[in-house]
Specification:
The chain is built from 16 helices and 28 strands. It is of the alpha+beta class. Helix 4 runs parallel beside helix 5, helix 11 packs across helix 12 and helix 13 packs antiparallel against helix 14. The longest helix is centred in the middle third of the chain and has 30 residues. The mean pLDDT is 97.
């Protein structure tokens, strides 16, 4: 903590020199990504907090970190002994309102322009207006970060042609049709997953997310990809040429925007202030979610077929992993949380079309499982010994799909209370898996269906129930979501083709965490005089540990669902595994 406190004090010295009353460091890059290249991990560098979401605010007297409920316990641990206090998002005042209340009239608040979205800028200015607080996006205080990592240089690669069912040219035509409907002369795309989806290219610039740093500027008759051109090989350039997409240097987007005229379509939540610094003042901005975000959220029948195959291979890898894990534990081999991720990667990397993990494996034993996004490290981890629940949340990127799965198993003997909690989470999981509801209703409404079995026993969990998942893309894909706290809008309605997670949970601080997660796809179940109705098909294939299930708490229908799921898991995975993996699969899919 000495180093973190030194950095905060260095920042304050620079703030005093430049008459800055507060400095904001969000979790962001110029593309407003959820997960960042190392070059933009300034909040982590300044605070020592490693979670994927959070905003650091530093004033002359207070340093505070805002983060959501997934990270409260982790943040308390990582901030202990530092000058930084934890602010709980959703409970404490938001940063903009807190600053507006704490700072004097005409105070100056600085934030890097390449870490601030246009939408966030408006929110800060609205909060600051009554006290005439100045929002300064020009002053760079990150000059104290002397060993700041350079921009990533990993090569771009083509998404395998056999798993691409729509050419870049066809996708571009759909986007241009949307532009025409909105009467837009240009469309700027800053979000990396939208660009990789549209171009059918992939990259390695962000850990676990197969994306690359780029901007895409589209007009009615041209399209230019701004990226590090040295990353593009002959095959990748050929794909761009076939779609009539030109390429130019990454830094050239500013100059190109200076020549834009008419109307520019963009997503204010996904466009940084710095990106538009040269945009002519007379250009009219049409604010709308990127049409590509809506298009890629709805997977085609061909893509879903590929995802089913990826799930089979991922499930086979998991059978091998769990068989090895249980055998080595039974043999008394010393294992830790840190070993879990390495073991999973070893098994998954043997599967066809594997690329990488889709996120940093979460393996939390006992009290560590109560932190939803806990991450063990080589230097800090817990040994798997004694009695307790082990929560494992992991996933992989394959050319034919992206996976994300959470399972819980007992090390030693599970308690009665643990089994009751596990069964209630399972009931919630089944409630969503079997839900039928009208098409195009909000995920906020659907969330209540899942939580009902937990709410009835006065239990709950702080995070959302479901997030969208990409197709060989980001494991968290906007805008699909199942969360009652999420604002209902036209873009997070449940629609056929959406790939989304089903992950109800329960956490007991200092004791254990339980989460059961499968990926599900929204499918039509029929139409009546009351309209179209949809439900979910479960795609993830891996046994749910029935040793933790209190069968007497399940209804006949819930028990039937679990047994039918395990029959399907066995039928689809057994041809792909052998030896101890097959024996494990057979034992874990016995009907209850």
């Amino acid at each position: 903590m000495i180093m973190i406190n030194q950095r905060i004090n260095q920042l304050r010295d620079l703030m005093r020199e430049q008459n800055i009353h507060a400095y904001l460091v969000p979790t962001a890059d110029p593309h407003l990504s959820e997960y960042l290249p190392d070059h933009w991990k300034a909040r982590k560098w300044l605070s020592g907090f490693t979670g994927s979401a959070g905003t650091l605010v530093v004033t002359a007297d207070v340093a505070a970190l805002w983060t959501d409920s997934r990270y409260w316990e982790q943040a308390e641990q990582q901030l202990a002994g530092s000058l930084i206090v934890l602010k709980k998002q959703g409970i404490d005042q938001e940063p903009a309102d807190w600053l507006a209340a704490e700072l004097p009239e005409q105070a100056k608040v600085a934030i890097a322009a390449d870490m601030l979205s246009l939408a966030a800028k408006k929110r800060f200015q609205a909060a600051f207006g009554a006290k005439n607080i100045i929002l300064d996006t020009q002053t760079d205080l990150l000059t104290i970060w002397h060993d700041r990592p350079p921009l990533p240089t990993a090569p771009v690669f083509a998404h395998k042609a056999e798993y691409v069912d729509e050419s870049a040219a066809q996708k571009l035509a759909r986007v241009r049709q949307f532009m025409q409907q909105k009467q837009a002369d240009y469309h700027l795309i800053s979000s990396l997953d939208d660009i990789t989806w549209l171009t059918n290219l992939r990259g390695n610039d962000v850990p676990y997310n197969p994306v690359f740093l780029a901007y895409l500027l589209i007009s009615a008759d041209s399209a230019v990809l701004f990226t590090d051109v040295n990353k593009l090989g002959a095959a990748e350039k050929s794909i761009l040429q076939q779609a009539d997409i030109q390429w130019a240097d990454y830094a050239g987007v500013g100059k190109a925007l200076a020549a834009v005229s008419g109307c520019l379509l963009l997503d204010e939540n996904k466009t940084a202030v710095a990106t538009l610094i040269n945009l002519p003042e007379d250009v009219e901005i049409i604010e709308h979610i990127n049409p590509s975000s809506l298009f890629k959220a709805k997977k085609s029948a061909t893509q879903i077929a590929h995802i089913r195959q990826a799930m089979r291979h991922d499930g086979a890898a998991l059978c091998g992993f769990f068989a090895q894990l249980e055998r080595e534990l039974a043999e008394g081999k010393p294992l830790t949380e840190w070993d879990i991720g390495k073991m999973l990667t070893a098994h998954r990397s043997q599967q066809p079309h594997y690329i990488s993990p889709s996120f940093n494996t979460i393996a939390g034993f006992c009290e560590n499982g109560a932190q939803p996004h806990y991450a063990a490290s080589e230097d800090s981890h817990k040994q798997l010994m004694g009695n307790g629940l082990l929560l494992i949340d992991s996933g992989a990127q394959y050319h034919d799909g992206t996976t994300d799965i959470t399972r819980v198993m007992a090390i030693g003997t599970a308690t009665e209370a643990e089994c009751i909690d596990f069964t209630l989470v399972l009931k919630a999981h089944i409630a969503l898996a079997t839900a039928v509801f009208p098409a195009n209703i909000s995920g906020a409404v659907v969330d209540a269906i899942c939580r009902a079995p937990l709410w009835q026993t006065q239990r709950d969990y702080g995070h959302g129930t479901g997030h969208g998942v990409g197709y060989c893309l980001n494991v968290h894909e906007f805008p699909a979501t199942i969360a009652y706290r999420a604002a209902a809008n036209p873009h997070n309605m449940m629609q056929v083709g959406q790939l989304i997670s089903n992950e109800p949970a329960l956490y007991r601080a200092g004791q254990y965490g339980i989460r059961i997660e499968n990926l599900i796809v929204c499918q039509s179940v029929g139409t009546s005089e009351f309209g179209e109705f949809v439900g979910f098909e479960t795609l993830t294939l891996c046994p749910i540990d029935t040793r933790l299930v209190k069968v007497d708490l399940l209804t006949a229908a819930e028990r039937a669902w679990l047994n039918a799921y395990h029959v399907e898991v066995y039928e689809k995975l057994s041809p792909l595994v052998q030896g101890e993996a097959l024996a494990w699969l057979r034992e874990r899919t016995v009907m209850i």
